[in-house]
Amino acid sequence: MNDHFAHSPPESPSPPANPGQAVDFDLFLQCVHCGLCTSACPTFSELGDENDGPRGRIYLMRLVAEGRLGLDDRVRRHLDLCLDCRGCETACPSGVHYGRLIEPFRLAVEQSDRRLVRRFDWFRNLILLRLFPYANRVRLAMKPVRWAQRLGLYEAAERLGLFKLIPGRLGQMVTLVGPPVDPGPKLPKFLAAVGRRRARVAFFVGCVADAMFRHTHWATLRVLQENGCDVLIPAGQGCCGAIHYHAGDSEGARELADQNVHAFDLDELDAVVVNHGGCGAMLKEYVVHWKDDRQAARRRFVAKVKDVNEFLDQLGPIRPTGRIEAVAAYQDACHLGHAQKIREAPRRLLAQIPGLTLCELPETEICCGSAGTYNLNQPEMSGRLIRRKLENVLSTGAQIVLASNAGCLLQIGREVRQQGLPLAVMHPMDLLALSYRGQQPEIPLTAKRRARRP
Ligand code: SF4
Ligand code: SF4
Q: What angle is formed at CA 235 by the lines to CA 232 and CA 239, rounded to 5 degrees?
């Protein structure tokens, strides 16, 4: 949100010689190698290789930590292919915190043996660390794409497959941009509750979510107002830090975390509400990523962070009255379902919409292949997973796909466009806001001509 907090990506303190030392070894010991997680793992189910499943990856990381295996390219490939979707955490009966193993391990790997690669990785240093986390910069960078869309050039390029000519991660990124939507005005500092005030909350705005899904922010704010919430939108907040953290810049992520912790006056709030699963998971994990003297403040902050579905479900939602006669499938975003364990709350909220038929999506627990920047870094596996996801969506006869995360919405939206499917892709708050206002969603009635894949 605030560019003045931009910083040069600093080098982290000296990394451990063995990346496994960055992980609490007891976490490895919690895994009893039962293998009950393997069928829940998207990469294992696609490839059938034990090394591309959670049990195998845990074993590989443990061998590296013990110094019994070198971190060679083969090991690295198996770890890089992990989506960090945390499906294995949900499936594991022993309560293994897989995310707490893979994330510090990856961070330590990034910081140890790839310093030179990182220094010259322009995409990471410019796009991931200096563009994505700042909404104003993303909006500016998207202007040429928006012009091309308005002139019809973008759609023509997509249909002719011209994006294939843009190499690597940049080519993947361009194709993720959805059609222009009216974002609504700049978010205000305060919005008053409709009717009797039931809660006073602050809203977390984020970065890419604000640049590309401001209409969803507005929908969320309206739903909160309709549910009797005064909403504050404090200045001074920024990106949650997930992009920095997952790109190996723990220090940059820590700066953003502390900026956010200080931006909210917690004493006057019932909750800090966030509407995208990836941001929410990162905010809640501020308490586990670092161990320094600011942990107490982070803990106070995290105690107030609530996903919007979770918050409204706990508050007791006020039933919307606008009928929406449609069939919708809800996709569990991994960082909401697996990382935050929030699965029933969005379903209960959506079930309140009169006329809506909510169907269960087969394999809803399987990642759609977005996974932060995974779809840019691992397009082949990501493509397999999103095609599998859309097959499952189509099998339900749904007209609307719902997901509570920006990455999923972009990933599903791209595949829907490329396959020319007659499906609307929305955040649950978008649909709820329409019902509160007595309006209807725009659902494409017929399939469109397919675009060529990049
Ligand atoms: S992570 Fe859990 S489910 Fe998977 S092998 Fe280990 S103990 Fe079993
Ligand atoms: S995080 Fe996801 S991709 Fe990685 S091992 Fe677990 S289930 Fe598999």
A: 105
Contact 154, 433 (CB under 8 A): no
Rounded Cα distance between 305 and 284, Å, is 7
* Confidence grade of residue 447 (pLDDT, cut at 50, 70, 90): low
Nearest Cα neighbor of 347 from 359, 334, 338 is 359
Average the pLDDT over each of 22-31, 118-127, 288-297 and give the range with the smallest value: 118-127
Q: Is ligand 2 within 6 A of the CB of residue 64?
A: no
Ligand 2 touching residue 82 (CB < 6 A):
yes
Residue pair 272/257 in contact by the 8 Å Cβ criterion: no
pLDDT score recorded for residue 5: 33
User: Taking the mean position of all CA atoms in its chain, how far away is CA 7?
Assistant: 23
State whether the beta carbon of 34 lies less than 6 angstroms from ligand 1. yes
| 7 pLDDT tier (thresholds 50, 70, 90) | very low
Q: How remote is the CA of residue 400 from the centroid of ligand 2, in Å?
A: 27
Q: What is the mean pLDDT of residues 347-357?
A: 98
Q: How far is the CA of 355 from the centre of ligand 2 (A)?
A: 36
pTM of the entire predicted model: 0.91
Round to whole Å and give the CA distance between 108 and 332: 29
Residue 150 is predicted with a pLDDT of 87
Distance 157 CA to ligand 2 centre (A): 35
pLDDT of residue 1: 38
- Beta carbon of 36 within 6 Å of any ligand 1 atom: yes
Closest ligand 1 atom to 98 CA: 1
Place of tokens 């909510």: 358
Ordered strands of the 424-426 beta sheet:
356-359, 326-331, 400-403, 424-426
Does ligand 2 come within 6 angstroms of the Cβ of 98?
Answer: yes
CA 46, distance to chain mean position in Å, is: 22
54 alpha carbon – ligand 2 mean position (Å): 6
